[in-house]
Amino acid sequence: MKAIELLGKGEEMNGRAYVKIDKSELEEAIKTLKENGYNHFVMLSCIDWLDDGEFELVYHLWSYEEREHVMLSVRVARDGESMPSMHELFPQIETYEREIHEMYGIKFEGNPRLTPFFLEGWRDMPPMRKDFDSRKFTKDVFGNISTIEEEEDEGI
Amino acid sequence: MKEYELFIGPQHPGITGNMMYHLWAEGDTVVKAECNVGYLHRGFEKLMESRLWMQNIPLVCRICVPEPDVNEAAYSMAVEQLMDWEVPERARYIRTIVLELARISAYLMAIGGYAGSIGIYTLPQWMTGDRDYILDIFEQLTGARVYHIYIWPGGVRWDMPDNLPGLIERTLNYIEKRLELYDDVLFRNRIFFDRAVGIGKIPKEKAIEWGVSGPNLRACGYGYDVRKLEPYAAYDEIDFDVVKYPELGKFEALSDGCDVYTRMIIRRLEIEQSIDIVRQALKKMPEGDILLKHPNWLRWKVPAGYAFARVESSKGEYGYFVVSDGGLKPVRVHVRGPSYTHGINVAERILKGANIADVSQILFSLDICPPDIER
After folding, report:
1. DSSP one-letter code for B359
2. CA trace torsion A148, A150, A153, A154 (10° rounding)
3. Which residues of chain B form beta strands (DSSP E)?
């Protein structure tokens, strides 16, 4: 695959190039790919690996000429490590970083728009983290509304 | 003149769903636009991490309301990649038919909505009515009208009833006849020419970098279609040409592309293309199995790995990124909706300098669908 040749590392996974790179090499890698036809930025995903204590950020790029999809994987520590923002390379990265900042709490240095995106007045832990307990949250917030099963005893 | 602020949405009829645009205007010219979403966030991606692989199928289709089938297809394809499954041939053809019918119905919604935004209120009524005939087909095939839960990893849920090809053919003939009326009301209408030509231009050289995809990209003159770039279902065995600017068939190229006019004409032409694809698929569809032998889905484990599947939806490129650690549930499912880029970065940029009266038609011409921004 061309992306693996260009970056000098990586493996093929389910028909896609999967390249593990370091935080410091990321900007250079995206620039190299962009200059070589990988000019469509598909998306930026974040995965929470709770057991490893790390977040994995996956930058997806696509080349229309080569018809190739490359996933650049960067790992950052869960305890507040920040990432350099890539929004100057592709404008839509700004929105993806904004969402990840809100949902996982990763800080992107240099992103001018890390404002609330979907959530309003959120004071809890970023909700997409694996250690965020949705059931407990629901119970704390809406707990005093009884469920239908509980009410059934009273004969509704 | 002093600048003032204007809020369009979420209850404004000229907005493409449950979202809001915050506009700053001088006179009637927009100087700055900001997209505001969050009215529709349902946390599907979080929910999917705590449900079994199979339990996620009824969830994913709810991500895009006008065209739910692309979600089922993309999620199933990603799981099939991880499982290393080959889908039976008949199932691939049935998927193609379902996806193309869904595309026609989504285009009817999109064009109807657009026509409403420039004041032609007849078309939304007609198109919603005609879309119902397609929903009738889905009801016979899947038992449901809107969310079908029909495309599964390994194939489709059940086979096509014997009378369905006849019903599909009759419906397609009807829609083809109606297209002539639509042309008279919208696509050959003076109002459309006066309002849409040259409005809402996406700079051609920036289109790919900004992440524009689907009909909006083809209106800029790039002939890129996922059905051709990475054929899925049975698209590699079907003969069709990508519709792109400036080859607009019987319609005239009145501008140099990338504008509202060209985007809507591309959608109109792709309805005909979809009708042709469904007819070919019905003719070529072989007999045989429709679903692979399934493991017990309560104890179904998917091998560890990363998979990305993309499909062409009526709004653009739809992608599913699925991560498994070899367990009963996915570690992460991330959805790439086309409106994520169109609705936020692209719309905010092209609304700058637009007339307030054109804001609504520009948004409709991008076919922004807030459910796939928020998931």
Report:
1. H
2. -70
3. 4-8, 20-26, 29-36, 151-152, 155-156, 305-313, 316-324, 332-336
Tokens representing B198? 């040259």
Could you tell me if A16 lies within 8 Å of chain B, comparing CB atoms? yes
Quote the number of domains for chain A: 1
3-class secondary structure, B328 = coil
Give the contacts of B307 (CB within 8 A, at least 6 positions apart).
Answer: A13, A14, A16, B78, B79, B81, B82, B321, B322, B323, B324
Q: Are strands A40-49 and A16-20 parallel, antiparallel or unpaired?
A: unpaired
Distance from CA of B336 to the nearest CA of A (A): 7
Distance separating alpha carbons of residues A99 and A90, to the nearest angstrom = 16
In chain B, which residues have their Cβ closer than 8 Å to the Cβ of A128?
A: 45-46
In chain A, the residue whose alpha carbon lies closest to the alpha carbon of B85 is A14
Assigned domain for A147 exists: no
Q: Is residue B8 a contact partner of residue B359, using CB atoms and an 8 Å limit? A: yes
Beta carbons within 8 Å of B79's beta carbon, 6+ residues apart: B53, B153, B302, B307, B322
A41 contact residues in B (CB cutoff 8 A):
209, 211
Question: ipTM for the complex?
Answer: 0.88
Alpha-carbon span B160 to B303, nearest angstrom? 31
Q: Which residues contact B104 (CB under 8 A, 6 or more apart)?
A: B134, B175, B271, B274, B275
Structural domains for chain B: 4-374 (1.10.645.10)
Decide if B225 touches A, using CB distance below 8 A: no
CA distance B109 to B123: 10
Q: What is the pLDDT of residue A156?
A: 46
> How high is the pLDDT of residue B93?
93
Residue B41 CA to residue B17 CA, distance in Å, equals 13
**Residues of chain A below pLDDT 50:** 156
Residue A151 lies in a domain: no
**Does residue A150 form part of some domain?**
no
Give domain status of residue A149, yes or no: no
Residues of chain B positioned with their CB less than 8 A from the CB of A45: 321, 332, 334
- The mean pLDDT values, 10 residues at a time, for chain B of 375 residues are 85 82 91 89 89 90 88 92 90 93 93 90 92 93 90 89 92 93 90 90 90 91 90 90 86 86 92 93 90 83 91 92 91 91 91 90 90 85
The parent domain of residue A46 ranges over 2-135
CB-based contact (8 Å) between A118 and chain B?
yes
DSSP letters for B57-95 = HHHHGGGSSS-THHHHHHHHHHHHHHHT----HHHHHHH
Say what the pLDDT of residue B170 is.
94
Strands A68-77 and B316-324: unpaired
The alpha-carbon gap from A34 to the nearest alpha carbon of chain B, in Å, equals: 9
